[in-house]
């Protein structure tokens, strides 16, 4: 379930209320402990320093692409190749699977550049309507020549709450084209055919971050 390099979201628990959100990475683990690099605050980008016994709600994306959560606390700090915090390895009874679909789809208006791989039409830029780890949809130009099963090369930018920006490139297949209700432009859904594992994990992380933000605002 756990994989070295997995990004974890840590929500600080204070008096039974979820407070600030931090981001950390799984550096190492064994049968008893998880070793995480020092958490970074999602909004300020500053490193958080916490005492032993500090409690967190941890959420992460498992190798099966599902979302998992568990509650934990810092039991010690240690120096490996880098300074880390140590938390107990969660029991199965303490772990909750909170998302059973393979990919979470969220609404998002992201800049995207679209190219036809065999140059059947001119490249164009537009914005996305929604995105998931498996694909996205975007608004087509007023006059376009796209058809279902066209192969596209797309570039888009993922802005994270921390201020980090990730540029993603993927090959995608057009799976559906339809007229958006109340709009003059078509909407196009594409499915990622070729995308690096790192880029896909960034997309999933972005979707998860958006989902958490929507939950906080009461939109989910």
Automatic annotation (TrEMBL):
Per the UniProt record, one Pfam family is PilZ
Signal sequence coordinates: none
Record GO terms (molecular function): cyclic-di-GMP binding
Residue ranges occupied by any PilZ domain in the UniProt entry: 99-209
**Would you tell me the protein name for this molecule?**
Pilus biosynthesis protein PilZ
Q: Where is the Type III secretion system flagellar brake protein YcgR PilZN domain?
A: 3-90
Q: Tell me the superkingdom of the source.
A: Bacteria
């Amino acid at each position: 379930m756990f994989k070295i390099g997995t990004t974890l979201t840590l929500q600080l628990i204070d008096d039974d209320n979820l407070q600030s959100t931090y981001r950390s990475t799984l550096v190492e683990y064994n049968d008893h402990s998880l070793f995480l690099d020092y958490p970074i605050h999602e909004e300020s980008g500053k490193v958080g320093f916490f005492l032993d016994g500090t409690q967190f709600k941890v959420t992460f994306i498992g190798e099966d692409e599902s979302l998992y959560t568990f509650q934990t606390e810092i039991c010690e700090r240690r120096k490996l190749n880098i300074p880390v915090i140590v938390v107990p390895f969660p029991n199965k009874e303490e772990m909750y699977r909170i998302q059973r679909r393979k990919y979470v789809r969220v609404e998002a208006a992201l800049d995207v550049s679209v190219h036809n791989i065999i140059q059947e039409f001119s490249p164009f830029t537009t914005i996305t309507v929604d995105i998931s780890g498996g694909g996205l949809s975007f608004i087509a130009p007023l006059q376009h020549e796209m058809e279902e099963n066209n192969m596209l090369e797309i570039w888009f930018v993922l802005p994270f709450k921390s201020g980090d920006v990730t540029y993603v490139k993927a090959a995608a297949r057009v799976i559906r084209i339809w007229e958006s209700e109340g709009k003059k432009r078509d909407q196009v859904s594409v499915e990622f055919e070729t995308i690096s594992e790192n880029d896909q994990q960034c997309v999933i992380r972005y979707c998860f971050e958006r989902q958490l933000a929507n939950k906080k605002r009461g939109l989910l």
